[in-house]
Amino acid sequence: MDIIALLKSFIYLAASSLLLPVMFILSCLAVWMVVYAGSFAGLWFARKRLPRPVDAMEAAAGNDLSLFSLPVRRFCRQLSRLKTGSHPDIAALNLLRETEHCMWKSLDHLKLLIRIGPGLGLIGTLIPMGTGLAALSQGDLTRLSGDLVVAFTTTVVGMALGLISYLFFTIQRRWVEEDIKNMALICELQMPRIENKGENR
């Protein structure tokens, strides 16, 4: 038995069997990206309605939370309800770190899609190219043209997913950095009040 021919057949069958899952995943990701674009637009409009520029120090000192974004206002409500014990400063810092971790974690799906989209597009390109070349050797131009259409469209979809994900990630990373800065500032300003509340218990 020719081992090389057997391995070639196995690799060809394994690669060909990946085409359908790759196309299905790309289709699902494309639908998800359309839905996510709607939620991203909602976040963008909500932030555009906020007054700019904002003096974060003055707004935080005056407890005017309407000037901040929704994540910052939610953090302030959690901070005000914080149950202090013997170490209120550590409790406030822990809340800040947990909120920061959750905000960065919420961007992981975009970071993954930046790499996964083009990777799946490349896989969806190479598999039909292989079957297309095999069809060309047999003179089947109809199958070749069909395989080339699949190859190029999966490339376009994969690259588009990666580019759009990178755009969304870049903008939302700037939002997260701004929100974390404001949260840290508010936490610093509210720390004496939290400590006094803990001492009065």
Q: Main attributes?
A:
mainly alpha, single chain, elongated, 201 residues
Gyration radius over CA: 26 Å
SS-derived structural category: mainly alpha
Q: Uncertain regions: pLDDT < 50 for 5+ in a row?
A: none
Overall geometry comes to elongated
How far the N terminus sits from the C terminus, by CA atoms, comes to 83 Å
**Biggest sheet character:** none
Mean pLDDT: 83
Following the backbone from N to C, one meets helices and strands in this order, namely HHHHHHH
For the secondary structure, the number of strands is: 0
Helix run count:
7
Determine the fraction of residues in helical runs and give it as a percent range. Answer: over 70%
Question: Per DSSP, what share of the residues sits in E-state strands of 2 or more residues?
Answer: under 5%
